Here is the input.
Amino acid sequence: MTVTLGPLRIDAVTELDHWPFAPAELFPAVTPEQLGDHRGHLDLSITTYLVRTPDQTVLFDAGNGNAKERPVLLAHHQFDTPYLDRLAATGVMPEDVDVVIATHLHPDHCGGFTQLVDGSWDPTFPRARYLIAADEYAWLQEVHAAAPEGGVAADLARTFEDSVLPVVEAGLVELIDLPYEVTDGITLRSLPGHTTAHLIAELSGGGQHALVSGDVLHHPFQFSDLTLAQGGDVDPVAAAESRRTLCELAVERDALLLPAHFGPGRIDRASDGFRYHPAPLGVA
Here is the structure.
């Protein structure tokens, strides 16, 4: 499915359609009232966004990637998905991508930066500039340098080693300060809290707007309580502020929301905060 914003063409490229989590695993403080009628696991997805401009092909995030060793973060461990085939179905091959942007450096967003080729982790998008917020890179580099032997930190260090460092060594990474204009109609801005320097993208064209929101929000029921923290939020207070900022921005611009882990949609105000309305790509 495709949506156009003036000269921008946007396609969702989904790596994983069904990614289930127990509610308390995803949101440790979740209450029965917040869950409402929901029963069982929460079914997320892993979705990236391909944006074609008149002169550049830009990919936001690259998914988890296949064959990654994540023995602690088992939800990220040893994927085997046809992600690159799905990318090719949009008419884009890895060598066609000009820019890859990391909303942040968690494994399911940057793992796909590399692929295993003859026992080596090679850049998946060999011609691309990989744009990473400088503070985000510094955080993960520090985790790796500490050489953690166990726990989540060990898998984050593995992420740096097999997914980030190879593109750095290939000379493909550009560390950026925010805000940052990628090209006409694509501006990156900081919305921290989930990670140190999490970013979103503001897309605009033809008088229309969209927001690539990464992990600012993980599930639609967070709209009813923007203070509900996800287990990976490094700063829950800042993350809640960023969720509110995102919602305000989406309402102000009547922007299409493009999240990483649930479907595109629109946001409007409600008496108790904000409401989310699914809007599949193809509906501008």
